[in-house]
Amino acid sequence: MALEIPDFQVYRGTEPPRFASQAELECAKVLDYYGVPWEYEPTTFVLEEDENGRVLEAFAPDFYLPDQDLYVEITLMKQSLVTRKNRKLRKLRERYPDVRIKLFYKRDIERLAQHFNLDLAPS
């Protein structure tokens, strides 16, 4: 079942966003509601290449907030399973030291959902 995408007011992307999860959609709704301009997965950062320049590993953060020059990644994985994502963020910070990124963990998203009464159930 596809996610129903509202008519966003401050979305800055050129193509309609295609969210990977209900949690991403709900976060986008919160950003939009508060008038925080955002883009969805606008940049893919190359983290590792082979000797021929082929991309072996890359990372596309979920959101970019242009007014804050900040990338935001959200994960609903259990804390014990986020090691791989943390490793990718560490690689991104090493390779692109000027890129600002914030990772929101499951507990952060659950607090946000409780505060804003959001429905984060998978669709």
Description of the structure:
With about 120 residues, the chain is of the alpha+beta class. The protein has a domain at about 35-80. Helix content is about 30%, strand content about 20%. It is built from three helices and six strands; from the N terminus they run H-E-E-E-E-E-H-E-H. The protein has helices spanning about 20-35, 85-95, 105-115, and strands spanning about 40, 45-50, 55-60, 65, 70-75, 100-105. Strands 1-4-5-6 form a four-stranded mixed β-sheet. A two-stranded antiparallel ribbon has the order 2-3. Strand 4 and strand 5 form a beta hairpin. The model has no long low-confidence stretch (mean pLDDT about 85).
Sheet with the most strands: spatial strand order:
1-4-5-6
Class from secondary-structure proportions? alpha+beta
In whole angstroms, the N-to-C terminal distance is 6 Å
Q: What is the string of SSEs from the N terminus onward?
A: HEEEEEHEH
Count of helical stretches: 3
Overall, the morphology is globular
Q: Using DSSP, what is the number of strands?
A: 6
Question: Beta-strand level of the residues, as a percent range?
Answer: 15-25%
**Roughly what percent helix?**
25-40%
Question: Which ranges are low-confidence, i.e. pLDDT below 50, for 5 or more consecutive residues?
Answer: none
Report the radius of gyration as a whole number of Å: 15 Å
Q: Would you tell me the overall average pLDDT?
A: 86
Main β-sheet description = 4 strands, mixed
